[in-house]
Automatic annotation (TrEMBL):
<dbReference type="InterPro" id="IPR026992">
    <property type="entry name" value="DIOX_N"/>
</dbReference>
<dbReference type="InterPro" id="IPR050231">
    <property type="entry name" value="Iron_ascorbate_oxido_reductase"/>
</dbReference>
<dbReference type="InterPro" id="IPR027443">
    <property type="entry name" value="IPNS-like_sf"/>
</dbReference>
<feature type="domain" description="Fe2OG dioxygenase">
    <location>
        <begin position="202"/>
        <end position="320"/>
    </location>
</feature>
<keyword id="KW-0479">Metal-binding</keyword>
<dbReference type="GO" id="GO:0046872">
    <property type="term" value="F:metal ion binding"/>
</dbReference>
<comment type="similarity">
    <text>Belongs to the iron/ascorbate-dependent oxidoreductase family.</text>
</comment>
<protein>
    <recommendedName>
        <fullName>Fe2OG dioxygenase domain-containing protein</fullName>
    </recommendedName>
</protein>
<dbReference type="InterPro" id="IPR044861">
    <property type="entry name" value="IPNS-like_FE2OG_OXY"/>
</dbReference>
<dbReference type="GO" id="GO:0016491">
    <property type="term" value="F:oxidoreductase activity"/>
</dbReference>
<dbReference type="Pfam" id="PF14226">
    <property type="entry name" value="DIOX_N"/>
</dbReference>
<keyword id="KW-0408">Iron</keyword>
<dbReference type="Pfam" id="PF03171">
    <property type="entry name" value="2OG-FeII_Oxy"/>
</dbReference>
<dbReference type="InterPro" id="IPR005123">
    <property type="entry name" value="Oxoglu/Fe-dep_dioxygenase_dom"/>
</dbReference>
<keyword id="KW-0560">Oxidoreductase</keyword>
Length: 356
């Protein structure tokens, strides 16, 4: 596994003009979503030093399910390039993108146009269909999986349509997986397991790299009941690594009060949160917390109309191996709240009711 060097994140959207505003807003968030310096874990001389950072991470995952990860070691130009190539992809003609359309939850690969997905906590297909018709998610995405899969293939644009897109995303996928391994080792230590406990359970890289584009939109279209850029939901897997631009809009529900709190972008950090399968694995010792994407402050364009700015993000949804059984960890309670579940069956089942 390549060693990740410490770096600072360079935002793909001009940031410094809004730095002071974001810093002020971030101060009110950090008591709920702490900033944790992962450099101390990656560069620690011994396990005792790593254990201190691991305990910080697990403590936060028990309280809110979210952290800002600083000192993650992914070079800023790597993140910057991924955002640039993502923007290039979404600027392609609609007809070109539609040829790459998402087709099957077992694959979970391809282009998802605006309104096709409706994220929610419901598992009822009829209810989700009604929600989608009433208040679809105003976003488009490109879903990318491991490229060597023998059964399910990624849907790549032609090199002439999106130069260096495939190479950039394959490299970024591997970089995110490597970080995922490190963070899961910290979770293992924080739960008093062997540091490498999860290594053999995540090594097949059954993850999902999701490129997200939230187009600029008239605010009137976001004022319907239940409407949001992405509705309140939890994630499905072990962890999510979220790379934000400076626009903002992510909100995290305080599980103790029910209030949604802005996860204001903080330069140099990645937002990391617990997914449903890790919560299930830990018998709910670690929290998989509801979150959503709402419209940031709008720009007035006429006396009666305003528009919200476009937003980009990149989410890396980390999963156990699809063959892995997720059952209550031995030191996370005397009685398991959930029966064992196969990872692949669980994730495909969740995806199947989310899309049209």
């Amino acid at each position: 596994m390549p060693f990740l060097r410490a770096s600072r994140f360079v935002c793909p959207v001009p940031f410094y003009a809004t730095r002071r505003r974001l810093a002020t807003a971030a101060q009110s968030t950090q008591s709920f979503i702490p900033v944790i310096d992962f450099t101390k874990f990656r560069e620690a001389a011994g396990q005792s030093d790593r254990k201190h950072v691991a305990d910080e991470i697990v403590s936060a995952f028990k309280k809110s399910g979210f952290i800002y990860l600083a000192g993650h070691g992914i070079p800023s130009n790597t993140i910057q390039n991924a955002f640039v190539k993502s923007a290039d992809f979404f600027r392609m003609a609609t007809g070109t993108k539609d040829k790459l359309a998402w087709e099957d939850p077992r694959s979970n690969r391809g282009y998802v146009k605006v309104g096709r997905e409706r994220v929610t906590q419901s598992a009822d297909p009829t209810e989700i269909a009604a929600l989608r018709a009433k208040a679809p998610d105003f976003k488009e995405s490109m879903e990318i999986g491991r490229d060597w899969d023998s059964e399910w293939k990624n849907q790549w644009p032609q090199e002439s349509d999106a130069p260096q897109f495939k190479r950039t995303m394959l490299d970024f996928y591997q970089t995110c997986h490597d970080l995922h391994v490190y963070v899961m080792r910290s979770v293992a230590l924080g739960l008093d397991l062997e540091e490498g406990f999860f290594d053999s359970k995540i090594n097949e890289q059954c993850h999902n790299l999701r490129l997200l584009s939230y187009p600029s939109i008239k605010t009137t279209l976001l004022q319907n009941e239940g409407q949001a850029r992405a509705g309140a939901h939890s994630d499905y897997g072990t962890l999510t690594l979220l790379f934000q631009d400076s626009v903002g809009g992510l909100e995290v529900q305080n599980p103790h009060t029910g209030v949604f709190i802005p996860a204001t972008p903080i330069p140099g950090t990645i937002v990391v949160n617990v997914g449903d399968l890790l919560a299930r694995w830990s018998n709910d010792v670690l929290r998989s917390t509801l979150h959503r994407v709402v419209a940031p402050p709008a720009k007035q364009v006429t006396d009666t109309e305003a528009t919200t700015p476009a937003r980009q993000s990149i989410a890396f949804f980390c999963n156990p191996n699809f063959s892995a059984e997720v059952a209550c960890l031995p030191n996370c309670g005397k009685e398991a709240k959930y029966p064992p579940v196969n990872t692949g069956d669980y994730i495909v089942g969740r995806l199947a009711v989310t899309y049209t």
